[in-house]
From TrEMBL:
<comment type="pathway">
    <text>Pyrimidine metabolism; UMP biosynthesis via de novo pathway; (S)-dihydroorotate from bicarbonate: step 2/3.</text>
</comment>
<keyword id="KW-0808">Transferase</keyword>
<dbReference type="GO" id="GO:0044205">
    <property type="term" value="P:'de novo' UMP biosynthetic process"/>
</dbReference>
<dbReference type="GO" id="GO:0016597">
    <property type="term" value="F:amino acid binding"/>
</dbReference>
<dbReference type="InterPro" id="IPR006130">
    <property type="entry name" value="Asp/Orn_carbamoylTrfase"/>
</dbReference>
<dbReference type="InterPro" id="IPR002082">
    <property type="entry name" value="Asp_carbamoyltransf"/>
</dbReference>
<keyword id="KW-0665">Pyrimidine biosynthesis</keyword>
<comment type="function">
    <text>Catalyzes the condensation of carbamoyl phosphate and aspartate to form carbamoyl aspartate and inorganic phosphate, the committed step in the de novo pyrimidine nucleotide biosynthesis pathway.</text>
</comment>
<feature type="binding site">
    <location>
        <position position="263"/>
    </location>
    <ligand>
        <name>carbamoyl phosphate</name>
    </ligand>
</feature>
<dbReference type="GO" id="GO:0006207">
    <property type="term" value="P:'de novo' pyrimidine nucleobase biosynthetic process"/>
</dbReference>
<dbReference type="InterPro" id="IPR036901">
    <property type="entry name" value="Asp/Orn_carbamoylTrfase_sf"/>
</dbReference>
<dbReference type="GO" id="GO:0005829">
    <property type="term" value="C:cytosol"/>
</dbReference>
<dbReference type="GO" id="GO:0004070">
    <property type="term" value="F:aspartate carbamoyltransferase activity"/>
</dbReference>
<dbReference type="InterPro" id="IPR006131">
    <property type="entry name" value="Asp_carbamoyltransf_Asp/Orn-bd"/>
</dbReference>
<dbReference type="Pfam" id="PF02729">
    <property type="entry name" value="OTCace_N"/>
</dbReference>
<feature type="binding site">
    <location>
        <position position="137"/>
    </location>
    <ligand>
        <name>carbamoyl phosphate</name>
    </ligand>
</feature>
<feature type="binding site">
    <location>
        <position position="82"/>
    </location>
    <ligand>
        <name>L-aspartate</name>
    </ligand>
</feature>
Amino acid sequence: LRHFLTTEGLPKELLTEILDTADSFVDMSAQQVKKVPLLRGKTVVNLFFEASTRTLSTFELAAKRLSADVLNLNISTSSTKKGETLKDTLMTMRAMHSDMFVVRHSDSGAAHFIAEQVTPDVAVINAGDGRHAHPTQAMLDMLTIRRHKGQFEGLKVAIVGDILHSRVARSQIHALRILGAEEIRVIAPQTLLPRHIESLGARVYTDMNSGLRDVDVVMMLRLQKERMDSALLPSESEFYKLYGLTRDKLAFAKPDAIVMHPGPINRGVEIESAVADGERSVILDQVTNGIAVRMAVMSMAMSGQLAEKNRAQPDID
Ligand code: CP
């Protein structure tokens, strides 16, 4: 069995194969073909130790469309509340002959830890671990960009907001670089920028208007208050004034620039409603594309294609 834990260091061919496979599922859905038997007889367990709307729902739908049996363990009412450890919870779920765990956890590195515990019996898909990675979110974002812009070559992409606490930004930067985007910009106040972000291949801007100038894609991020020290929380009104995406600020991007957001959105904090709901917004396309990307990742992981293409990669075995 195989894992999908990060976009970092993966070959371009593999990411392209995920996108191509996802595209075929989008086309299938457009032709009203809702189900395929690729995971028939397999059991997928969603283990979400953190809140989720989009990721949990689209993983569940994706697994069902692949004909898997799906179990969503409700962590808030599970025996973890009686003191059961993460490892004992994992072993308990593995003992039910699970084939795949989809895992979200607040600790960076949790998905890797879980994969180590359950290899080789269970494939692990990372649905977001701490500030570290959210690889399927990055891949659904890449699919959305490719479907709207056709290719990555020549694209300038700006990622705006709370980069410091964002697992989405890290996974996107890795994926964009691998797929050949021309320029990746991060726009944020100094206090919300990780140290050495330039080493990932991103250009840093602290001013919205210059950072957005002539970009093709504007990716907004939420302030991740749950990961911040409350004493360091920025004022929401001040943040909106300087970094909120308004129609005025969007005018600095290319006229055909698309507006993205992984969700959940905080309207009036990082984005104006008129922009979030405007004609350049592809935010709901991102949600829809999440089903196809998760179908692609789950079917490829289960069939071992990831392993064949990435035998040398530490995160995919
Ligand atoms: N984008 C994202 O991960 O959303 P959820 O937290 O709702 O799953």
